[in-house]
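[Q] Does anyone have a clean structure-token version of this?
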Amino acid sequence: MNDKEHVDLNDILGQPAPSYLFSRKKQVSVLIFMILFALLVVNFFIYPALPNFVDRNGIAADGPLPNGMGNSPLMHFVWSLVIVIFGVLVIVLSHTMQYFVKRRHMISILGYSAWVLGELLLMSIIFAVCVFCIRIDNDFMHATLVSLAYASFIYLVSFFLCVLYMSNYEKKAEIKKLKGELDSVVTEKAATKDTISFYDEKGEMQLSIAKEHFLFVESADNYVNVWYLKNALPRKLMLRMTMSRMEEQLAGTSAVRCHRSYIINMEQVKVLQRDKDGFYAEMGIEGVPDLPVSRTYSDAVTKWLSLQ
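[A] Here you go.
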């Protein structure tokens, strides 16, 4: 069992890293978020803790920044910006190298993880050199460990949040794509068969009827009512589906959107009558109401009638 789990883990780590991690547009977005996150953490969490750190290390200073480097909030922000810029340069150079490497070789999840850890280690060393040179910490090894801790928190937390967001975004885009493909399949089936099938938002078929028995679809908030004939009597079935997606499913059939709240089977329309409130479509079936035809959709209705 342990061997199988070990093999499975190796298989996962050996898979190519997700493509969105290499998207230039997404990398710019990640970089901007990291900069803002780093400035927030440095100015509101790290700098306020420096006076105690300086006192523990016996460094003479008149405030959080030693050697007269300035203790105003503005100077804190300036120095934090300088440190963050060093980190940004490391990431930009690293991702530039990564771009050329990926053009020639596949970068696995394991390889990408090692690359991220390498970036983190390099940034920690650069930060440690800065801390050591301005004498915030006289022990270079200790400065390196402290820098590694701070850099790990800033870099890994912000990076994890970005990856979580991008992964969720990609999953939603994939689901949307699959729904679009499903709607296309449903539309093709509806256009080529003598029956019309109605699916809910999960893609599960709930009703299949002969085209001549289909009457209209009525909007009901996040649901729709499908009206049809059964034993010559009108019946309705409620489905969880939006009108826009239902309209896409029925594309290529005799169903036409006639109103914001209605999709009508034009083959069932017997009379298109106009009164003071506008056009109404009559089906001449007892128990079936006349449906309004709004100005927005009147052209589509009259065009369909003119082609028959």
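[Q] Thanks! Anything notable?
[A] Residues 2-175 form one domain.
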